[in-house]
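User: Is it possible to get a 3D structure for a protein together with its bound compound? The compound here is zinc ion. I've pasted both below.
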Amino acid sequence: MTTFSRAYFPALAASLGEAVADILDPPLCAACGMEPAEKHSLCGKCLDSIPLPSPPLCPLCGGENDGLFDACLECLKMDRPWSKGVAVARMDGLMASLIRRLKYGGETAIARALGSLAAEKWLEAGIDADLAVPMPAHWTRKILRGFNQADLTATVFSRLSNIPLRRPLKRIKPTPKQAGLDRAARLRNLENAFTARGSALSGKTVVLLDDVMTTGATMSAAANALLEAGAEKVVALSLARA
Ligand SMILES: [Zn+2]
Ligand SMILES: [Zn+2]
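Assistant: Yes, that's possible. Here is the predicted structure of the complex:
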């Protein structure tokens, strides 16, 4: 199993300066509170506990591929309007608990840690993009105390990857819970759920960030909205592939 290399961030910190140094020099590991690894938001033990998908990886979702076809069975069955997919981790173990703590516990340090891991994975994947766009709504859940951790994750990703952050996506209809629905119902549910505005998208390659990719129906609906608004290409980046 591959684990996160700790080699990327010193160079990154040197090239991007103080703002990044702040992000990458947290006092304590965001997951367990121990001393963090150098230039990381997590300690070495927690970094090594992030469950990564085992290769071969599916090029459309970044999850594990069964190896029989070019893409995993779920990606073969579903419309994938994006050109490539990258997943930071599997939705399991420490990653699942960090995402839950971020979504429901409002822990800022975790948003920073996940944003850093996403940037590291992105650099490792070696893909170019012009703009980074966070998934609205469940990502951009408006936190009652007036602070949005999910947006912070995207901001950290944007700074570390050096890809400008834009927020052209809007949810134009509230989406009922996807859990428990079959594939067709999920798609119906999401039809026209998003709209994207702004000439900034025209001709651009956009990296679309979401926390968890399950069937990919949400990612698909959002990617279609970006493409309809003029984006040239969408790359799907999820924190965890379920
Ligand atoms: Zn730790
Ligand atoms: Zn796939």
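The CA atoms of residues 115 and 153 lie 4 Å apart. The longest helix spans residues 108-125.
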